[in-house]
Specification:
Lysine-specific metallo-endopeptidase domain-containing protein; signal; binds zinc ion; 13 helices; 339 residues; alpha+beta; three-stranded antiparallel β-sheet
């Protein structure tokens, strides 16, 4: 039987300690303080995972924890989640602090100690070099076995447009980040496996770090807000009448808790260390938004794609932090003090 994939244990209990490194362009191109902001967000992402494992281990029978899991995963998955995390000691295996290396260092992408559980965080396209013979492709010099295709190149250049600005006062949507795991497919194992399992399950790390490209508008937005973390103040904000009245009809108050760190957790679930979760676009085709935020994720709970949907996992860890701070969330995504 296939195991239920759940990102938390893999982020926290990978066999070897994994590291992340930061592109120097984050600070150079986007301004002072950005590197520190990214570090605080990564620390929050790791702490969210730790907290979630602790709460799931120690407060399994809490009615609010049970309800939350039911809203996001359906009632059956509650037991599966518990099976996966029960007894696992929360230990941080993605370092909460950055590597001494930068993503520009040869040793970062070619070092003997590197693994595909490591993650390079990029704020620029400086690593993309033209393919020697095929104009539509770029080589990723930090991740040599992988060629980046024209469509991806386009998305990456849009993501790293340092001049892009967000229109103030609109609910303009934009790409926050793009994650590329570092893998090849074990085709032999795939062909030998009975019952046509998803190809995703046969991804094998290349030994080179995975990459997360953090988009300029998203970084600027986080900087503008002062790199908030999830705390009492953040939750009080989404409970205010002003916030609730300002929501669009596809938003719920809990969506406003999301921080840079929650998004980094989301991205990490796409990478090798997070078990290659996906954005369940295929399931919610034509819906808007497809797989992000409370409304979509609670609807996905009854569909197979919900189990490995990145934002579902991100919302779970985010709301288990809110639980720790003394709040529970109802089915409609409103937060209330827990009794
Ligand atoms: Zn995603």
């Amino acid at each position: 039987m296939r195991l239920f994939f759940f990102s938390l244990p893999s982020i926290l209990t990978a066999a070897l300690a994994a590291e992340y490194a930061i592109d120097p362009e984050c600070e150079l191109a986007l301004g002072p303080g950005v590197r520190d902001g990214i570090i605080s967000g990564m620390k929050e992402a790791v702490e969210l995972a730790e907290n979630a494992l602790e709460v799931l281990n120690q407060h399994e029978s809490d009615v609010y924890v049970q309800n939350l899991i039911r809203y996001l995963y359906g009632i059956q998955d509650r037991d599966q989640i518990m099976d996966r995390v029960k007894g696992k000691k929360p230990q941080t295996h993605l370092s909460a602090t950055p590597s001494a290396l930068s993503t520009n260092d040869e040793a970062w992408f070619n070092g003997a100690e590197r693994s595909s559980n490591d993650v390079g965080l990029y704020c620029s396209n400086t690593r993309l070099i033209p393919h020697p013979t095929k104009p539509a492709l770029r080589m990723n010099k930090h991740n040599r076995p992988i060629t980046v295709r024209a469509k991806q190149v386009e998305a990456l250049f849009k993501c790293h447009n340092h001049d892009a600005v967000l229109e103030v006062g609109t609910n303009q949507r934009y790409t926050k980040a793009l994650t590329m795991g570092s893998y090849t497919i074990d085709l032999e194992a795939f062909k030998a496996a009975p019952g046509a399992p998803p190809l995703n399950e046969f991804k094998v790390g290349t030994g080179h770090p995975a990459n997360i490209d953090i988009c300029s508008v998203f970084i600027r937005q986080a900087a503008l807000e002062g790199w908030p973390l999830i705390n009492e103040e953040r939750i009080a904000r989404i409970r205010s009448e002003t916030f609730i009245n300002g929501m669009t009809d596809i938003q719920r108050p809990v969506d406003g808790i999301k921080t840079f760190g929650v998004t980094m957790f989301h991205e990490l679930t796409h990478a090798n260390i997070g078990g290659f979760f996906t954005d369940a676009d295929d399931i919610m085709e034509g819906e808007d938004p497809k797989c992000f935020n409370w409304i979509s994720c609670t609807r996905l709970s009854t569909l197979p794609g919900g189990r490995t949907n990145s934002d579902t996992a991100a919302i779970l860890v985010m709301l288990l932090k809110a639980w720790r701070l003394g709040y529970y969330v109802d089915q409609d995504g409103f937060a209330h003090p827990r009794i």
